[in-house]
Amino acid sequence: MRRFSLWMKAHPMVGDTLLAALIASFDVLIFVARVVTDPSVEPRPEPWYVTLPLVVGVVTPIVFRRRYPIVSAYLVLGVGIVHSLLEIGLASAITSCVALYTLVAYVSRRAALLYVAVNVVITLVQTPWQYPHDWVVTLIFVILATGFSWALGEFNGARRAYNAEVERRLRLLETERDQQARIAVAEERARIARELHDVVAHAVSVMVVQADGAAYAVHSQPELAERAVKTISSTGREALTELRRLLGVLRSDQASSERTPQPGTQSLSDLAARVRTVGLPVQLDIVGNVDDLPAGVGLGIYRIVQEALTNSLKHAGHGSSATVRVERTGDRVDLSIVDNGYRVAGTLVGVSGGNGLIGMRERALVFGGTLEAGPRPSGGWQVRASLPFGNT
Question: Which residues form the DUF7134 domain (predicted)?
Answer without folding.
Answer: 6-160
